[in-house]
Specification:
Number of helices: 7
Largest sheet: 6 strands, mixed
Strand order of the largest sheet: 6-7-8-3-9-10
Shape: globular
Radius of gyration: 18 Å
Number of strands: 10
Strand content: 25-35%
Order of helices and strands: EEEHEEHEHHHEHEHEE
Distance between the termini: 20 Å
Structural class: alpha/beta
Protein backbone atom coordinates (compact mmCIF):
# COMPACT_ATOMS: atom_id res chain seq x y z
CA UNK A 1 0.00 0.00 0.00
CA UNK A 2 1.33 3.43 -0.98
CA UNK A 3 2.04 5.53 2.12
CA UNK A 4 4.06 8.34 0.54
CA UNK A 5 3.80 9.65 -3.01
CA UNK A 6 5.79 12.59 -4.34
CA UNK A 7 4.65 13.92 -7.70
CA UNK A 8 7.20 16.15 -9.45
CA UNK A 9 8.34 17.83 -6.23
CA UNK A 10 10.59 20.86 -6.59
CA UNK A 11 12.14 23.20 -4.05
CA UNK A 12 13.91 26.46 -4.86
CA UNK A 13 15.51 28.70 -2.26
CA UNK A 14 15.62 32.43 -2.93
CA UNK A 15 18.68 34.21 -1.60
CA UNK A 16 19.58 37.84 -0.98
CA UNK A 17 17.01 40.30 -2.27
CA UNK A 18 15.35 37.67 -4.39
CA UNK A 19 17.71 37.90 -7.35
CA UNK A 20 19.45 34.57 -6.68
CA UNK A 21 17.55 31.28 -6.93
CA UNK A 22 19.09 28.00 -5.82
CA UNK A 23 17.25 24.84 -6.93
CA UNK A 24 17.47 22.16 -4.23
CA UNK A 25 15.00 19.63 -5.68
CA UNK A 26 14.04 19.36 -9.32
CA UNK A 27 11.06 17.21 -10.27
CA UNK A 28 11.36 14.40 -7.74
CA UNK A 29 8.93 11.51 -8.17
CA UNK A 30 8.91 8.94 -5.37
CA UNK A 31 6.58 6.32 -3.93
CA UNK A 32 7.13 4.62 -0.57
CA UNK A 33 4.92 1.76 0.55
CA UNK A 34 3.86 0.94 4.08
CA UNK A 35 6.51 -1.13 5.87
CA UNK A 36 9.43 -0.13 3.65
CA UNK A 37 12.92 0.64 4.94
CA UNK A 38 14.70 3.05 2.59
CA UNK A 39 18.01 4.89 2.81
CA UNK A 40 18.38 8.28 1.12
CA UNK A 41 21.94 9.06 0.02
CA UNK A 42 23.78 11.76 -1.85
CA UNK A 43 26.72 14.14 -1.70
CA UNK A 44 26.54 17.43 0.17
CA UNK A 45 24.18 19.70 -1.76
CA UNK A 46 22.41 16.82 -3.51
CA UNK A 47 19.06 17.70 -1.89
CA UNK A 48 18.74 14.84 0.59
CA UNK A 49 18.23 17.08 3.64
CA UNK A 50 15.70 19.20 1.76
CA UNK A 51 13.87 16.04 0.73
CA UNK A 52 13.77 14.80 4.33
CA UNK A 53 12.47 18.19 5.52
CA UNK A 54 9.65 18.07 2.98
CA UNK A 55 8.82 14.46 3.83
CA UNK A 56 8.70 15.48 7.51
CA UNK A 57 6.41 18.47 6.82
CA UNK A 58 9.14 20.76 8.17
CA UNK A 59 9.28 22.58 4.84
CA UNK A 60 6.97 23.06 1.86
CA UNK A 61 7.84 22.28 -1.75
CA UNK A 62 7.91 25.08 -4.29
CA UNK A 63 6.02 22.92 -6.74
CA UNK A 64 4.48 19.48 -7.07
CA UNK A 65 2.28 17.38 -4.81
CA UNK A 66 3.08 15.36 -1.68
CA UNK A 67 0.56 12.73 -0.63
CA UNK A 68 0.95 11.27 2.86
CA UNK A 69 -1.52 8.49 3.58
CA UNK A 70 -3.58 9.73 0.59
CA UNK A 71 -3.73 13.35 1.87
CA UNK A 72 -2.06 16.09 -0.18
CA UNK A 73 -0.01 17.89 2.48
CA UNK A 74 1.99 20.12 0.13
CA UNK A 75 -0.34 23.10 0.51
CA UNK A 76 -1.55 22.76 4.12
CA UNK A 77 -1.19 25.68 6.51
CA UNK A 78 1.25 25.69 9.45
CA UNK A 79 -1.29 24.53 12.02
CA UNK A 80 -2.36 21.51 10.03
CA UNK A 81 1.25 20.61 9.21
CA UNK A 82 2.05 20.83 12.92
CA UNK A 83 -0.74 18.38 13.73
CA UNK A 84 0.55 15.95 11.11
CA UNK A 85 4.09 16.14 12.54
CA UNK A 86 2.72 15.57 16.03
CA UNK A 87 0.36 12.71 15.24
CA UNK A 88 1.64 10.93 12.13
CA UNK A 89 5.43 11.34 11.95
CA UNK A 90 8.37 10.34 14.14
CA UNK A 91 11.81 11.95 13.97
CA UNK A 92 15.28 10.70 14.92
CA UNK A 93 18.11 13.23 14.69
CA UNK A 94 21.89 12.85 14.63
CA UNK A 95 22.21 15.11 17.67
CA UNK A 96 19.34 13.37 19.57
CA UNK A 97 17.53 16.68 20.34
CA UNK A 98 16.67 15.66 23.89
CA UNK A 99 15.60 18.22 26.51
CA UNK A 100 18.51 18.25 29.03
CA UNK A 101 16.34 19.18 32.04
CA UNK A 102 14.00 16.20 31.55
CA UNK A 103 14.53 12.57 32.47
CA UNK A 104 14.44 9.69 30.00
CA UNK A 105 10.77 8.97 30.61
CA UNK A 106 9.84 12.68 30.50
CA UNK A 107 11.64 13.17 27.17
CA UNK A 108 9.71 10.25 25.70
CA UNK A 109 6.43 11.69 26.98
CA UNK A 110 6.78 15.10 25.33
CA UNK A 111 4.92 14.41 22.04
CA UNK A 112 2.03 12.80 23.95
CA UNK A 113 1.45 15.92 26.03
CA UNK A 114 0.97 17.91 22.81
CA UNK A 115 -1.81 15.46 21.94
CA UNK A 116 -3.60 16.16 25.21
CA UNK A 117 -3.06 12.68 26.66
CA UNK A 118 -3.55 12.22 30.40
CA UNK A 119 -0.46 12.13 32.63
CA UNK A 120 -1.14 8.51 33.49
CA UNK A 121 -1.46 7.48 29.84
CA UNK A 122 1.70 9.41 28.94
CA UNK A 123 3.71 7.75 31.69
CA UNK A 124 2.46 4.23 30.90
CA UNK A 125 3.27 4.64 27.21
CA UNK A 126 6.69 6.19 27.88
CA UNK A 127 7.71 3.46 30.34
CA UNK A 128 6.65 0.73 27.91
CA UNK A 129 8.68 2.31 25.09
CA UNK A 130 11.72 2.82 27.33
CA UNK A 131 11.59 -0.89 28.12
CA UNK A 132 11.22 -1.70 24.42
CA UNK A 133 14.48 0.11 23.57
CA UNK A 134 16.36 -1.35 26.53
CA UNK A 135 16.26 1.57 28.96
CA UNK A 136 14.09 0.20 31.76
CA UNK A 137 16.94 0.79 34.24
CA UNK A 138 17.46 4.41 33.13
CA UNK A 139 13.95 5.88 33.37
CA UNK A 140 14.85 8.80 35.61
CA UNK A 141 18.34 9.56 34.32
CA UNK A 142 18.95 12.91 32.59
CA UNK A 143 20.54 12.99 29.11
CA UNK A 144 23.93 14.03 30.51
CA UNK A 145 23.95 10.82 32.56
CA UNK A 146 23.59 8.65 29.44
CA UNK A 147 25.96 7.46 26.74
CA UNK A 148 25.42 8.57 23.15
CA UNK A 149 23.84 5.24 22.28
CA UNK A 150 21.46 5.48 25.22
CA UNK A 151 20.48 9.01 24.23
CA UNK A 152 19.70 7.82 20.71
CA UNK A 153 17.57 5.03 22.18
CA UNK A 154 15.58 7.68 24.05
CA UNK A 155 15.14 9.55 20.76
CA UNK A 156 13.91 6.37 19.06
CA UNK A 157 11.42 5.71 21.86
CA UNK A 158 10.20 9.30 21.60
CA UNK A 159 9.77 8.90 17.83
CA UNK A 160 7.61 5.83 18.42
CA UNK A 161 5.37 7.28 21.11
CA UNK A 162 2.65 8.57 18.76
CA UNK A 163 2.61 5.30 16.76
CA UNK A 164 3.69 7.19 13.60
CA UNK A 165 2.95 6.28 10.01
CA UNK A 166 6.64 6.70 9.22
CA UNK A 167 9.88 7.39 11.10
CA UNK A 168 12.32 9.82 9.48
CA UNK A 169 15.92 9.38 10.64
CA UNK A 170 18.64 11.92 9.83
CA UNK A 171 22.11 10.32 10.16
CA UNK A 172 20.96 8.37 13.26
CA UNK A 173 24.41 6.87 13.87
CA UNK A 174 26.45 9.93 12.85
CA UNK A 175 27.55 10.80 16.40
CA UNK A 176 28.14 7.23 17.57
CA UNK A 177 31.14 4.92 17.52
CA UNK A 178 30.90 1.94 15.19
CA UNK A 179 29.91 -0.62 17.85
CA UNK A 180 27.16 1.58 19.30
CA UNK A 181 26.04 2.50 15.79
CA UNK A 182 25.55 -1.17 14.99
CA UNK A 183 23.38 -1.55 18.10
CA UNK A 184 21.17 1.35 16.99
CA UNK A 185 20.93 -0.03 13.46
CA UNK A 186 19.95 -3.43 14.86
CA UNK A 187 17.17 -1.70 16.81
CA UNK A 188 15.96 0.04 13.63
CA UNK A 189 16.05 -3.32 11.82
CA UNK A 190 13.88 -4.78 14.57
CA UNK A 191 11.38 -1.91 14.33
CA UNK A 192 11.10 -2.39 10.58
CA UNK A 193 10.55 -6.12 10.94
CA UNK A 194 7.71 -5.26 13.32
CA UNK A 195 6.10 -3.17 10.56
CA UNK A 196 7.46 0.36 11.09
CA UNK A 197 8.10 2.35 7.90
CA UNK A 198 11.58 3.91 8.00
CA UNK A 199 13.23 6.55 5.83
CA UNK A 200 16.84 7.27 6.74
CA UNK A 201 19.27 9.86 5.41
CA UNK A 202 22.87 8.64 5.58
CA UNK A 203 26.20 9.28 3.89
CA UNK A 204 27.54 5.87 4.93
CA UNK A 205 27.27 3.02 2.41
CA UNK A 206 27.58 0.41 5.17
CA UNK A 207 24.63 1.96 7.01
CA UNK A 208 22.59 2.19 3.80
CA UNK A 209 23.08 -1.51 3.13
CA UNK A 210 20.98 -2.24 6.24
CA UNK A 211 17.99 -0.76 4.43
CA UNK A 212 15.99 -2.72 1.91
CA UNK A 213 16.04 0.13 -0.60
CA UNK A 214 18.64 2.79 -1.47
CA UNK A 215 17.64 6.07 -3.13
CA UNK A 216 20.53 8.24 -4.37
CA UNK A 217 20.14 11.92 -5.15
CA UNK A 218 22.33 14.03 -7.41
CA UNK A 219 21.78 17.72 -8.11
CA UNK A 220 18.25 17.65 -6.74
CA UNK A 221 17.13 14.66 -8.78
CA UNK A 222 16.88 10.93 -8.11
CA UNK A 223 19.94 9.41 -9.77
CA UNK A 224 19.20 5.81 -8.80
CA UNK A 225 16.64 3.83 -6.83
CA UNK A 226 17.22 0.14 -6.17
CA UNK A 227 16.36 -2.60 -3.70
CA UNK A 228 19.05 -4.46 -1.76
Amino acid sequence: MSLIKLDHISKTYVLGDGDVEVPALQGVDLTVNTGEYAAIMGASGSGKSTLLNILGCLDRPTGGQYFLDSQNVATLDDNRLSRIRCRQLGFIFQSYNLIPQLSVVENIEVPLFYQGQSERRCRERAVALAERVGLSQRLFHKPNQLSGGQQQRVAIARALCNDPLVILADEPTGNLDSATGKEILALLDELNRAGTTLLMVTHDDHVAQRARRVIRLRDGRIASDHFN
